[in-house]
Each structure stands twice: as C-alpha cells, then as structure tokens.
Design a protein that fits this description.
The structure is a single chain. The chain is built from three helices and no strands. With about 100 residues, the chain is mainly alpha-helical. The protein has one domain.
Amino acid sequence: MDTAERIDRITKMESILNSHAAAAAGLAAALDEFERSQKSYPLLRDYYVEGGYMQDVAADNEGLLPDDLPRGVLSEDAVFDLMGENVELAIRMLELATVVIRDR
C-alpha cells in the first residue's frame, strides 16, 4: 500500500469515526430524553384508555371548557398515534440493538 492509499484510508476512517461519534452522542441525548419522558407517559396512556379522555372530550363538545385552553390532547388521533409511535420506536430500538450486538 502506498502512502496516498494509506492517507485516503485514514481520512475515510477518520470521517466515519467523527460521524458515528456525533450520531452516538445525539442518540444518547435523545434516549436520555425519551427515557425521562417514559416516566410520565403512562399517565397519558391511562388517561386515554381508561376514560378521562372521553369525559373531557364530551365536556369540550358541550362548550364547558374555555376557548383559549390548549386541547391537542383532545384531538381524535394525537394520543392514539403517539401510543403507536411509542411501540414502533421501542421495536426499532430492539432491532437496532440486535444488529449492533450481533456485529460487534
């Protein structure tokens, strides 16, 4: 291997190192935030599944809530979609972890 090829290889590996290190740091930060969020997420899920949600939607439909109240949580799909996304992210993390551990 000549010097030019060696320099090209080192340059390429340096780029991969820096890119992957940045991605790993970003993922670690995102996972930390996601993990913190999971602590309160069951409250939202239970609100949606166990009926408080439907009572609040009914109250909103009856005009019992102030007009300036943020009510994204009362939309038809927001919580349901988030519940599905939460599961899909968990599956994706498991699948990726399997690849990382297998290929280490």
